[in-house]
Specification:
The structure is a homodimer.
Chain A: E1 13-14, H1 24-30, H2 40-57, E2 63-67, H3 71-82, E3 88-93, H4 96-107, E4 111-116, H5 125-135, E5 139-143, E6 145-146, E7 151-152, H6 158-164, E8 168-173, E9 191-194, E10 207-211, H7 213-228, H8 249-256, H9 268-284, H10 286-307, E11 322-326, H11 333-344, E12 346-347, E13 359-363, H12 371-387, H13 397-405
Parallel strand pairs in A: 1-12, 3-4, 3-5, 5-8, 8-9
Antiparallel strand pairs in A: 2-10, 6-7, 9-10, 11-13
Helix pairs in contact in A: 1-9, 2-9, 5-6, 10-12, 10-13, 11-12, 12-13
Keywords (chains A, B): Aminotransferase, Pyridoxal phosphate, Transferase
Binding site for substrate (chains A, B): 361
Family (chains A, B): Belongs to the class-V pyridoxal-phosphate-dependent aminotransferase family.
């Protein structure tokens, strides 16, 4: 029989836009023996996790719980639960994950209308509001922080315009939750989807979501019709039941409520991990955490610019937790990444679609976002580029970053 | 600010039909720092997991990988990927999880035809084969082991009949995989869904599946049409693209293949856990593991019968890993369960739907299935029933179980 070695993964410095390194406190939480899903101790842990999610999403919504799947499972759960076939869904696209929203919405039967912006930029919020006023969609779905381009979309006025035309506003905050402000209630976001493996620094495998009473009303209306479906002439209903059992928010909220109606078996160990990750976020404090991400971004950017490297994207909409760098002309970007991993144990990211071979992406997210890592990646990148004969300034990157840490400089 | 305590779950003896106790080796694997999803070390772990899944499913299928979600996510992934709206799906129901198959298939747009059998019994396989020949469904979906009733359905001839009418046979082996034989290739099963948190004794949160070339052909046919969809008059296509992105097996297999096309971010830590859980299963050996489950079942049953308790269900189709006990008349089943948990730290399960308040269910699955646990639950149940004034024989249960372990007795 074939045998397989003991698990013994190398220790990496993970500076991608996710998944990122996990706090040892979270790893330790995952090593605890499990509880049954209806054990009163476990349901209490579920309730605490909901409480902490409300704080992290900055919301007073009743519903805030994880979907048991990776980040896109949260997006699909929200969209499949609220999109009725034929619903008009407006998706402003400014990077790869906008296209994912389109794909998911279309699979749910939506009539999708898109707005597109060149990658590396974002929309003026008024452009989006104007499109909402013009199209009067049932749902607006958009990405908050695009890891594909390192850009963050402002929301000024968009939530208000959605309320005006009675559209639901669904936001993919997978990359931003826990790293940059996501003010669910203040921005009038109706549903928000977060990711675990980015700024929350919990392993991939859960997707925390929150949604308000406007979303719930649409979900429950569909549920009512579903229950009556067999008694009704099939030609009559204009809405169909949610096309998924696993992602049906109506059933999921009954499981996460005091009713505890059995749905799936909650992923025990991932719940332990998420709870511990959220505790760490709240113990640090949200605003302090946002400031920390900005500080390390500043040091990283100062170092990269001191080397003479050029950043990609419009700096006025730069996402603090992802920094995109133009690969210098003539350089094999993959060879550089391979040397960073092989010689330095550092992972940085390549890129998607039209940017393939054009940029590298460095994440400064959650537990990975610290001075040791930023200095390590700057030193390693400088040495690797120099080794490859790239014409860069040497000896300056770490000095520039250290100056930021010492409070003596800010990036150009 | 509200504070939350350090995680410190009580140690439980979990004797439910899942989730069950997790081997400390698996828990330890979950405490390792993570790797990036495209790190060559991680993709190698993914490949090893696929290899081991093929062994556990007893198949030479190319495709065997986990869906990142709880068990029903694997069921939904298979069904949503192969059911075209209007497809006839035959579901033989003999317990609660047959109804789940119906619900999922209906949400996928299937025309579902059911056969029903009284709970506590299973079908004569010839009844199912006759229905397949009569109905000529596109798909037959059925449960292998029903945790709701503790019954196991034999498959003799069903796979052959499915091939004859060109139906795909999809089997929910969530409760059985790793505990009782699931011979995918020998039984001509086209797709099989396993669960992690039962006989594999890995925490809930992944669902390993396997499927053969017949299933793949149907999935890929839909993928082709999906790609051409925008160019085709919407009224023309008779098949629609898969209604889910997260569960689209066509995209998932591209991610799990050497192509490594980006889909989701694989759930790193759960993959570590599944890999370690599968290593443990294969190190024990499948047939030895099946025998172990039968041995502890025999001891448990001997002890329960020695107490004078009555088992629920037809003994000729009893599932080795779940034992259902009729709650004696006049006994508050929930009070007994609460005392088992509170005084003995033991969890046994209540029941679903028509059996609510009628039976208890005891699981002997995976890591939880051991002599220490069986003797602990028998002793605790005897003492608890006696404490509640139930008229049972005392002092006999442990003797009867010990006799089985000593090889001196088999249950009546």
């Amino acid at each position: 029989m074939k045998t397989y070695k003991d698990l013994s993964p190398s220790l990496r410095t993970i500076m991608t836009p996710g998944p990122v390194e996990v706090d040892p406190r979270v790893l330790r939480a995952m090593s605890y023996p499990i509880l049954g899903q209806f054990d009163p101790e476990f349901t209490e842990l579920m309730n605490e996790t909901m409480d902490m999610l409300r704080d992290v999403f900055q919301t007073s919504n009743q519903w805030a719980f994880p979907i048991d799947g990776t980040s896109r499972s949260g997006i699909e759960a929200v969209l499949v639960s609220i999109i009725e076939p034929g619903d008009k869904v407006l998706v402003p696209i400014y990077g790869r994950f906008g296209h994912l929203l389109v794909e998911i919405a279309e699979r749910c039967g939506a009539a999708v209308v898109t707005l597109e912006k060149a990658w590396g930029t974002v929309f003026d919020p008024e452009e989006i509001s104007a499109a909402i006023g013009r199209e009067k969609p049932a749902i607006v779905a958009m990405v908050h922080g695009e890891t594909s381009t390192g850009c963050v979309q402002p929301f000024d006025g968009i939530g208000e315009e959605c309320r005006r035309v009675d559209a639901l506003l669904v936001v993919d905050a997978v990359a931003t939750i826990g790293g940059v402000p996501v003010r669910t209630d203040e921005w009038l976001l109706d549903a928000v989807i977060g990711g675990t493996q980015k700024c929350l620094s919990v392993p991939s495998g859960m997707s925390p979501i929150t949604y308000n009473a406007r979303v719930e009303a649409k979900v429950l209306r569909r549920k009512t019709i579903e229950r009556g479906l067999r008694d009704i002439d099939a030609a009559v209903p204009t809405v169909r039941p949610v096309a998924s059992n696993y992602f049906d928010l109506g059933q999921l909220q009954d499981y996460w409520s005091p009713k505890r109606l059995n749905h799936h078996t909650e992923a025990t160990t991932m719940l332990y991990a998420l709870r511990e990750g959220l505790r760490i976020v709240l113990q640090e404090g949200l605003e302090a955490r946002f400031q920390r991400h900005k500080k390390h971004e500043a040091a990283l950017v100062a170092g990269l610019q001191a080397m003479g490297l050029t950043l990609y994207g419009d700096p006025t909409c730069k996402l603090a937790v992802v920094t995109c760098i133009r690969i210098p002309a003539g350089v094999d970007g993959e060879a550089v990444r391979a040397m960073l991993l092989g010689s330095f144990g550092i992972e940085i990211a390549s890129s998607f679609g039209p940017l393939k071979g054009q940029i590298w992406r460095i994440g400064t997210m959650g537990f990975s976002c610290n001075q040791k890592n930023v200095l390590h990646v700057l030193g390693a990148l400088e040495a690797t580029l120099h080794w490859h004969g790239v014409d860069i300034s040497t000896g300056k990157a770490l000095q520039a970053a250290l100056a930021v840490y010492a409070g003596e400089a800010t990036p150009c």
